[in-house]
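Priority: low. Protein: HTH marR-type domain-containing protein. Input follows.
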Amino acid sequence: MAGDQASSGQEDALALAENLRRTLGKFVRGIRSQADTPTTSQSETLSLLDRNGPLSVAELAGLRNVRHQSMRLVVGQLEMDGLVGRLPNPADGRSQLLSLTEKGQESLSRWREARASKIADLIEERLSDRDRQILRAAIAVIERLA
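Result:
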């Protein structure tokens, strides 16, 4: 019996995990689309540079778990848009680091504000006081998982 309960508990955890992954992904994609902010790849790349400071294309690719070539394409678009720039790498004179430009920092802040504002609008429109209490509790639980 104990083995069956453990197996059932793991299946329940897997089902919860899949439901959470799917729901959060759908939520994030929907908010990004409704707030008219850039793709996940661009936004995540800018956020990584914001949090970590200047990084190489290889470091960005590793942090995003994508191929170097894919990361180069994303970085190329961000460079063309003036959102990232290149700096000499003090640790390796043959390579360069990417960093946020002032325009990149401003754009990232504006996009974050647009998404937060859209989420706030949805909370106000769709959630009761009780739903908001549940949401606060759910956020605390998700933070513990993070």
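The mean pLDDT is 92. The helical segments are 2-34, 40-52, 57-64, 68-80, 102-126, 129-145.
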